[in-house]
Design brief:
heterodimer, A: 278 residues, MetI-like fold, 13 helices, 77% helix, globular, B: 305 residues, mainly alpha, 70% helix
Chain lengths: 278, 305
């Protein structure tokens, strides 16, 4: 008898095989290559890292990328909540069709989104021709970055808030109403608190996606160094200059941020699950 | 959409006819808003969606046909476009099946067994979603590129990965990595192990149990995951852009071909190729909506709306 063998066999077979496949594939495709970035970045030392990350061009791009992503995610949090509310609570013609279109940014390739948005907001575009006389330039301007980020991260908040709103118990609202609360008080004090965790999760997901986005932004941003150049583009520029050390340093910084965001999203999701199960 | 719930509040019953027509109270007004607020909210939500979703989509097709049907067709029949289509299909044909096998394996061990570190494993599977596609491309350049760790060895043996098909396939696998697994994991967790236990008790082998019992249970969820995975594989730009080298007619996928045409000011041609991908996106959305509507009970709970 093998002493290490569990006494009782697992009822369902295939644990070792499937876990083996999962772990090896995950390691080969994702974990080892990502660890490679840190390995390479460690070779640069703190001075090398800070030298690259502290340069004015990189700092400007980080500021633009994170600032725009924050604005886009806030914008989507507001409108995403509105859209989720309208789709869960109200009936109107064309609802099913609009609902299907909400996922368009996930299905439409980012390059297509990029050139379409540029065509819309350029000086002679459908929207640009009205905005530019007002002094609002979107295409080839930092504002274009915000517009592109808003587009690609639009579904996250809607899709995370929708199920929570659908499950919210109407009895609570009725109770609030019978106790004398006006509708506005009921919405802000009774419904919104139950939606908060899901809203934050959606916000963080949208933010993470917007920070990493490349394809749609490079078309509309104009990519002017120090003005409308995003961080992922800077990685590509460094690569094309064969500055692998510089590219790695920026990538390591972005990757660290992805990990932090992922951790935050997981915490928010756990919070959502807890508050939904209460 | 929200499902009818058995304890949902009902409109009050209509009064007898002698009290006039219509219900006494039109709606349960305590838990809804006045009509003008409702329509204002609906109007702003639909306005937002139209402005940010429908208008860009419409502009793709309008711009594609701006120079007429002839330009449109010739842009699609160009040999470079043709080879871009082929490469895009090839990359998806490699990435989707591999991620499919992985997705099923991962969902099986996560949903059917309890083990330590499971939550961490689920988070790690989601990791590629929060990594910038450009960083995803970069990691493979660092390993397999001419100056990468394996670069010298690969050059000696005349194996090309970066600026060639394997690199493009790898980058596509990375960015589409979680799609199928994250569809199947919640679905198989909901389904539990009762069906499999029954099959095993009745004497079926492990593989036969999977093939005859598990697979029929998860087939629509699987298809849903494949659909999303495939859409992303066709459209990936950032990661593929880093590893492809942009060699026309050789390492250009459709999204990269759009970029080249656009940067050469061949706008009508760029939008013509883009309209192909946009049409594909619409087909994906239609199929996805159909699956959510027709097979709602056989998809993971999060997808039933």
């Amino acid at each position: 008898m093998n002493p290490f063998k569990p006494k009782q066999r697992r009822a369902i077979p295939g644990f070792g095989l499937t876990l083996g496949i999962t772990l090896s594939y995950l390691s080969l495709i994702v974990l080892i290559p990502l660890a490679g970035v840190y390995f390479k970045a460690a070779g640069l030392g703190w001075d090398g890292l800070l030298h690259t990350l502290g340069s004015a061009r990189v700092l400007a791009s980080l500021k633009l990328t994170f600032g725009s992503a924050l604005i886009a995610a806030l914008f989507n949090a507001f409108f995403g909540l509105l859209v989720a509310w309208v789709f869960v609570r109200y009936q109107f013609p064309g609802k099913r069709l609009f609902d299907a279109f909400i996922d368009l940014p996930f299905a439409l390739p980012t390059a297509v989104a990029g050139i379409a948005l540029t065509a819309l907001y350029a000086g002679n575009g459908w929207l640009g021709q009205y905005l530019e006389p007002l002094g609002i330039q979107v295409a080839y301007h930092p504002l274009g970055v915000v517009v592109a980020m808003t587009f690609i991260s639009l579904p996250f908040v809607v899709r995370t808030v929708e199920p929570v709103l659908a499950e919210a118990e109407k009895e609570l609202e009725e109770a609030a109403a019978t106790l004398g609360a006006g509708r506005w008080i009921t919405v802000t004090r009774v419904i919104l608190p139950s939606v908060w965790p899901a809203l934050l999760t959606g916000f963080a997901l949208a933010f993470a996606r917007a920070v990493g986005e490349y394809g749609s932004i490079i078309f509309i941003a104009g990519n002017i160094p120090m003005v409308s150049e995003i961080t992922p583009l800077l990685i590509i520029i460094k690569l094309e200059e064969f500055d692998y050390a510089g590219a790695t340093a920026i990538a390591a910084a972005m990757l660290t941020l992805s990990f932090l965001l992922l951790l935050l999203i997981n915490l928010f999701q756990a919070w959502t699950r807890r508050s939904r199960n209460r | 959409m929200s499902q009818p719930r058995d304890h949902s509040l009902q409109d009050p019953p209509a009064l007898p006819p002698e009290f006039g027509t219509g219900p006494l109270v039109r709606k349960n007004s305590a838990i809804t808003e006045p009509a003008w607020v409702r329509w204002l909210l609906i109007g702003s939500a639909l306005g937002f969606l139209s402005l940010f979703l429908l208008l860009p989509l419409a502009s793709v097709f309008t711009e594609a046909l701006r120079d007429g049907w002839g330009t449109y067709v010739s842009a699609l029949r160009e040999p470079d476009a043709y080879s871009a289509v082929k490469l895009t299909l090839l990359a998806a044909a490699i990435a989707v099946p591999l991620n499919l096998v992985f997705g099923v394996a991962a969902a099986w061990c996560i949903a059917k067994f309890e083990f330590r570190g499971k939550q961490l494993l689920i988070s790690l599977i989601d990791l590629p979603f929060s990594v910038s596609p450009v960083v995803a491309g970069l990691v493979y350049v660092l390993i397999f590129g001419a100056h990468g760790w394996a670069g010298g060895w690969l050059a000696e043996h005349d194996i090309k990965i970066i600026f060639a098909v394997p690199g493009i396939a790898l980058a596509t696998i990375f960015v589409t990595f979680p799609f199928i697994a994250r569809e199947l994991i919640p679905l198989m967790q909901e389904q539990g192990t009762d069906d499999e236990q029954a099959a095993l008790t009745l004497g079926a082998g492990g593989f036969r149990t999977f093939w005859r019992v598990t697979l029929p249970n998860i087939k629509w969820g699987l298809l849903y995951g494949v659909l999303l995975c495939n859409a992303r594989a066709f459209g990936e730009f950032g990661a593929v852009s880093v590893v492809s080298g942009h060699i026309r007619g050789q390492t250009n996928t459709l999204p990269l071909h759009i970029e080249i045409l656009y940067n050469e000011y061949a706008f009508a041609a760029a939008f013509a190729v883009a309209s192909l991908l946009a049409a594909l996106a619409l087909v994906t959305l239609a199929l996805k909506t159909f699956l959510e509507w027709r097979y709602a009970d056989q998809l993971a709970a999060a997808r039933r709306h």
